[in-house]
Design brief:
The complex is a heterodimer of chains A (113) and B (114). With 113 residues, chain A is an all-beta fold. Chain A contains no helices and eleven strands. Classes of the chains: A mainly beta (113), B mainly beta (114).
Chain lengths: 113, 114
């Protein structure tokens, strides 16, 4: 049972480039989400999904897109990378909307130069 | 929208000292409460959680937390810290059934000196 798998672990992008952060879970969880972690800011919710085909915006959605074509996968796309998107990104999943436990991936450290 | 406040951003303690990290939240309805720990370079790991029942919850590694509904608080405690407890600690809240996931506090960076 792998849990939540994120790839890549590290990435450097140039301003204006696009990329996709991958997230997959094998626990058949309905709820998946993406957070960014910045020093002194804690974790902030970017986008979330309550099931296949259903996504919605979190606290800081600008500059990011998501889709949920399957229960297992929830990729995060950076459309045109900016230095302000330099951060550590975490994907998380939980069984349902009422979160009694969230499982986190290992994180992706992204640097935009 | 709910918010979470952690009172101490940086805490330095000596080994064997007692620890209490404060956490207050703003949501007035039913909540699920969590403490997560992040060791350097690692992902978040669940320390403990509360969603009903006994307001004093025990977690891993000797940590415990007390939910005080009247004070909107969920403080984390450990009677005697170890050097290996050096990490970042996050309090988080989920409004039960709310789709907006977990709302995190800004974190407390705990350093334990040998």
């Amino acid at each position: 049972n792998a849990g939540v798998t994120q790839t890549p672990k590290f990435q450097v992008l140039k301003t204006g480039q696009s990329m996709t952060l991958q997230c997959a879970q094998d626990m058949n969880h309905e709820y998946m989400s993406w957070y960014r972690q910045d020093p002194g800011m804690g974790l902030r919710l970017i986008h979330y999904s309550v099931g296949a085909g259903i996504t919605d915006q979190g606290e800081v959605p600008n500059g990011y897109n998501v889709s949920r074509s399957t229960t297992e996968d929830f990729p995060l796309r950076l459309l045109s990378a900016a230095p302000s998107q330099t951060s550590v990104y975490f994907c998380a999943s939980s069984y349902s909307l009422e979160i009694t436990e969230a499982f986190f991936g290992q994180g992706t450290r992204l640097t935009v130069v | 929208a709910q918010s979470v406040s952690q009172h101490n951003h940086h805490v330095i303690l000596s080994e064997a000292a007692s620890l209490e990290l404060g956490c207050n939240y703003s949501y007035g309805g039913t909540v699920n409460l969590f403490w997560y720990v992040q060791y350097p370079g690692q992902h978040l790991q669940l320390l403990l959680k509360y969603f009903s029942g006994d307001p004093l919850v025990k977690g891993i590694k000797g940590f415990e937390a007390e939910f005080i509904k009247s004070k909107f608080s969920f403080n984390l405690r450990k009677p005697s810290v170890q050097w290996s407890d050096t990490a970042e600690y996050f309090c988080a809240v989920n409004s039960g059934g709310g789709a907006d996931g977990l709302t995190f506090g800004k974190g407390t960076h705990l350093i334990i000196q040998p």
